[in-house]
Amino acid sequence: MGPFYIACIMPVPTDPNERRIYLNCLATQVRDREDQWEAAWEALIAGLMPDLQSLLRRHQHIIPGGQEGLDEGMAEVLLYWQKKLSEGTLLRPWRSTSPVAAYLCGRIAVNIARRRAIKMQSPALGGEDGELAMDGNPPSLSSSENCSTTNPVPAKVMPGEGVCTFRPIASQGVSQMHVVAGLQLFPQLNWEQDPGPAVAAQMPPFLARVDARSWRKELSQAHDQAQAHLGKREQLLRDQLSNNGKGVSAHQAALLEKKIMKVRVEQRLRPISALEMEALTGVSRDTCDKHRSRFLKQHTNLVRWQNDNESCLSEEQGEAS
User: Largest Cα–Cα distance in the chain?
Assistant: First the structure.
């Protein structure tokens, strides 16, 4: 059974050792450009998302800008992985005997995210000076260089059914953020596992403008529409990146690729917009905006991703300071 078959058929193992083998198998397939390595790269990105999220959350004290800074930093790291992959250097120094999660989700990823967040806070800094590379080499493209061909688009970060579960609920019971998580992550949640049924019981009251007897169907349709809308946004950005096959400058390509990655993060974490939330719940647009913002800050405390393995993220204290 080859790596590609595993990536397409097998869910990400929950056992830490099996998960390490699974991710390393995908990484080897990508590094060696074996058959169907592009599909393996998409599976590897999806598998590493919880590791990257947990890593940046643990270092948020040195990443300015709050949740927005973390989001910008995560998109920057994903984009940087893609750039290094396109150059053929992302996994070149990696040894298959060590966990690929520890290799990619380490000090350099924190520094890349931190630099992007600082740059976002201080736009006047500009440029890419001092940007670290996985292989120690600086980026080779200048902002004035034109790309004659379309740059590779980052791998999709798409949701999958039943890939996360609610964490145990405290004595105070189901909170408002639990039902917001249920709304945003509906297709990805395992509703059968406790405390899923308890949260499900509180969904109809929260979805005040939806028939309580068919809230699952209505929410499923809302997610289908939201993903379709986000898919159109991504396609528009990809068309701009292609520029009718002429390509764009390296600077424009970097900006467009970053926007594409942000769309894909939205697809995974909070596809339902504030406007759609308002239509489903009946609460004000401002309140829905606040719900979405709070959810991004708290989602890792509300749900556990199937392939979330904190042990893969162990690092020496202060290594990114």
Answer: 59
Task: Note whether 37 and 11 are within 8 A (CB).
Answer: no
> How many CB atoms lie under 10 A from the CB of residue 252?
17
Q: Cβ neighbours of residue 225 under 8 Å, at least 6 residues apart?
A: 276
CA distances from 27 to 78, 286, 292, 315 (A): 15, 43, 33, 21
C-alpha–C-alpha distance, residues 273 and 285, integer Å: 10
pLDDT beyond 70 at 138: no
Which pLDDT value is given to residue 122?
A: 57
User: What is the model's pLDDT at position 172?
Assistant: 83
User: In the beta sheet, which residues pair with residue 303?
Assistant: 166
DSSP string, 84-134: HHHHT-SSTT--TTS-HHHHHSSHHHHHHHHHHHHHHH-GGG-S-TT---T
- Asked if residue 257 has pLDDT above 70, the reply is yes
Cis preceding linkage at 195, omega within 30: yes
Specify whether the CB–CB gap between 159 and 267 falls below 8 A: yes
Give me the sign of the Cα torsion angle 137, 143, 147, 151.
positive
On the CB side of 51, CA atoms within 13 Å amount to 28
